[in-house]
Amino acid sequence: MTPKTDVREQGIEVFRELLPGVLPDGPLDVRDGSFGDEILEIAMDNVFGSLWTRDGLSRRDRSLVTLGILIALRATDELKIHFQIARNNGLTEDEIAEVVYHSTGYAGFPAGNTACRLAREVFDVS
In the predicted model, what is the mean pLDDT of the chain? Predict the structure, then answer.
């Protein structure tokens, strides 16, 4: 990735690569005056702009780490998004299932079971 001075623009670019079609093309202005309208900007700056652009881990590896953390946190909304991102980063459904299984040993069976249910919804499998 070409070095850029604007972390937010880097974050938006990475997010668009990770989840094509989710954000509209062109400049992104999500502030509408409603409660918490800065949350997406914070995510673009701090998560996708600062973390997902770092050298040291591939995007595939970052997906593995992120899934494990989100499973442990039972961050259900974010898990749904990151299951999609993990597939876009080259993880197979079998590999994602292994992350879920492995997480049960460290985050507990209920967290893994919730993650399994969410993955089934995202992948539309029974």
Answer: 93
Give me the pLDDT at residue 29, please.
82
Range of the structural domain that residue 108 is part of: 59-123
pLDDT at 22 over 70: yes
How far, in Å, CA of 116 to CA of 36, rounded? 30
Domain-located, residue 87: yes
Alpha helix stretches (DSSP H) within 1-107: 7-18, 39-42, 59-73, 76-88, 93-107
Q: Taking the model in full, what pTM does it have?
A: 0.88
Same-domain status, 80 and 117: yes
23 assigned to some structural domain: yes
Report the candidate in 42, 59, 41 with the shortest Cα–Cα distance to residue 1: 59
**Percent of the chain as helix, strand, coil, to the nearest 5:** 65, 0, 35
Statement to judge: residues 35 and 66 lie in one domain: no
